[in-house]
């Protein structure tokens, strides 16, 4: 990406400095990392996380050999997708990897918002270049003690909030399945790296879907836990100090078994001894797994803002059909109004008028279109936004078409401390309403989609809008555990819109946000891109959600519709 000409000279210099630093670090790597993959490398790539640990602890494979294999793949991933933000390989080479540990030899990448001593935590902002951190985040210290090898940092977008991963600092990251499309955001670099087998585990973060979107877009697995379950301290947030909708750190993996095993092994390390924000909650057995009971599933078909596209709807329908064939009870979940929850969430996100979000950014630093639109909206006086909302409600035809968008538009404004406290009270009442419905309807899980669209074309976050994040953001507001797993691929014939769709009554009833999102939907261009579903449990039910994800995956395989990732 070219740095804008109107950007500050210091911004341009620091972007150039970081790019040169990355080139130099890569050039200084031992030549073995640039050599073709060997048969031994291929064997290592075929090992699960558990197998890597077992082989390393048995000294059948050296941790250095695992590092070498995954570094080779990470360099190939960088060349193909531009997914790396820093190299930490030389530091790993200097350290002795402890044996007989729960993660001995496991290669882990870190999103470039996680503090590592001696390295910048840029968060894709040029002002953070040349300011290495004095200490490492608790999750980094825990992983080192567990025997893991953290070899690279991965790219993220400036400002975090985005459906694509781009910045002046690192450029644009592409989707491994099709370079014309986004890998998701804000953990987009990690999603691309995982899909390319450049790491076994990526540690990302999630405030509105930032870990789950890249998992969905790149055909990998990820789960956001509840507050306090996974070490998150010293992992930078786009909104530091915000407790109303906190940023959650969590892992992504190429396979579900690796994701579940990693979660368990991290919790078994007693993360509360490393991170004061972690709850002292050990890993627990799942009741329906022990008893053999088949859990009950509740389906959320729409977030009330953007209906699922044909590809997203097929992914959900195929999952529902597979569960029913496997003998599970599947019902429609009648949730509290999701738009009302999103209104609460957006008020809390931007309660300071965007001040902390924009503070690290320099003049002229490029923002994605969605975040740029949001910041412009925040800068409008509240009475102007209320007037716009009134016009949307009164002039839109059919009547009521834009009511959801009008309601959300009014939430993008600064609040007083008293207003924010009242909004927290609203949030708790909303959480209580969900809890009541969950218990009343007797479900174990919610099953839904992570987004209404497949991976979007690069450069289209502004068209699709950040408000399209309702399917994921609502579970941050609720603080529910939520995991994403790939289930199918876009099919240009099965997933196409009717030729006259824009003239249809269905489209006529779409709000303006939905119309914008659907304007980029093209099943032909998107053919072959991964599609995912989202499994949701209640607070602190991470073990249960992982077990639920396994049930969906197994049911799809038994139905002959299992997801097979592409090899790059």
UniProtKB/TrEMBL annotation:
Signal peptide segment: none
Name of the featured protein: Amidase domain-containing protein
Keyword Hydrolase: yes
UniProt cross-references to Pfam families, sorted A to Z: Amidase
GO molecular function, one term: hydrolase activity
Positions of the catalytic residues: 111, 186, 210
Top-level taxon of the source organism: Eukaryota
Amidase domain: residues covered: 66-546
UniProt entry keywords in alphabetical sequence: Hydrolase
Family per record: Belongs to the amidase family.
């Amino acid at each position: 990406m070219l740095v804008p000409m109107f950007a500050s000279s210091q911004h341009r210099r620091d972007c150039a400095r970081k790019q040169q630093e990355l080139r130099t670090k890569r050039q200084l790597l031992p030549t073995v990392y640039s050599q073709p993959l060997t048969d031994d490398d291929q064997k290592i790539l075929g090992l699960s996380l558990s197998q890597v640990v077992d082989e390393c602890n048995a000294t059948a494979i050296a941790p250095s050999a695992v590092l070498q294999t995954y570094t080779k793949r990470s360099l190939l991933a960088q060349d193909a997708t531009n997914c790396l933000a820093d190299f930490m390989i030389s530091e790993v080479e200097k350290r002795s990897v402890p044996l007989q540990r729960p993660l001995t030899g496991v290669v882990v990448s870190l999103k470039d918002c996680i503090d590592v001593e001696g390295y910048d935590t840029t968060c894709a902002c040029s002002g953070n270049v040349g300011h290495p951190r004095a200490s490492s985040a608790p999750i980094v210290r825990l992983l080192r003690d567990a025997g893991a090898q953290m070899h690279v940092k991965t790219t993220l977008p400036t400002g975090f909030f985005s459906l694509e991963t781009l910045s002046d600092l690192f450029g644009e990251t592409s989707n491994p399945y099709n370079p014309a499309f986004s890998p998701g955001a804000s953990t987009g670099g990690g999603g691309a790296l995982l899909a390319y087998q450049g790491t076994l585990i990526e540690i990302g973060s999630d405030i509105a879907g930032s870990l789950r979107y890249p998992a969905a877009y790149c055909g990998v697995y990820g789960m956001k836990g509840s507050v306090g379950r996974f070490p998150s301290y010293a992992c930078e947030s786009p909104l530091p100090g915000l407790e109303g909708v906190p940023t959650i750190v969590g892992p992504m993996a190429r396979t579900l078994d690796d994701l579940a095993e990693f979660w368990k092994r991290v919790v078994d390390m007693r993360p509360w001894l490393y991170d004061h924000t972690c709850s002292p909650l050990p890993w627990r057995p799942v009741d329906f797994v022990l008893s053999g009971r088949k859990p009950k599933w509740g389906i959320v078909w729409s977030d009330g803002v953007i209906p699922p596209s044909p590809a997203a709807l097929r992914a959900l329908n195929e999952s529902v059909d597979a569960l029913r064939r496997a003998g599970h009870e599947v019902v429609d979940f009648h949730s509290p109004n999701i738009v009302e929850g999103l209104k609460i969430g957006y008020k809390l996100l931007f309660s300071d008028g965007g001040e902390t979000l924009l503070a690290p950014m320099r003049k002229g630093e490029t923002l994605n279109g969605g975040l740029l639109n949001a910041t412009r909206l925040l800068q409008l006086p509240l009475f102007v936004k209320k007037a716009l909302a009134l016009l949307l409600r009164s002039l839109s035809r059919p009547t009521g078409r834009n009511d959801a968008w009008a309601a959300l538009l009014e939430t993008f404004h600064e609040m007083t401390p008293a207003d924010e406290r009242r909004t927290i009270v609203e949030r708790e009442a909303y959480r209580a309403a969900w809890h009541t419905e969950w218990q009343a309807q007797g479900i174990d899980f919610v099953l839904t989609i992570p987004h209404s669209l497949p991976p979007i074309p690069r450069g289209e976050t502004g068209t699709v809008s950040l408000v399209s994040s309702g399917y994921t953001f609502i579970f941050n507001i609720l603080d529910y555990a939520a995991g994403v797993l790939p289930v199918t691929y876009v099919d240009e014939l099965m997933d196409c819109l009717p030729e006259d769709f824009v003239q249809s009554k269905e489209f006529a009833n779409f709000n303006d946000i939905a119309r914008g999102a659907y304007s980029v939907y093209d099943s032909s261009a998107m053919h072959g891109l991964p599609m995912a579903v989202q499994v949701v449990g209640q607070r602190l039910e991470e073990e249960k959600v992982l077990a639920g994800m396994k049930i969906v995956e197994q049911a799809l395989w038994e139905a002959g519709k299992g997801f097979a990732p592409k090899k790059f």
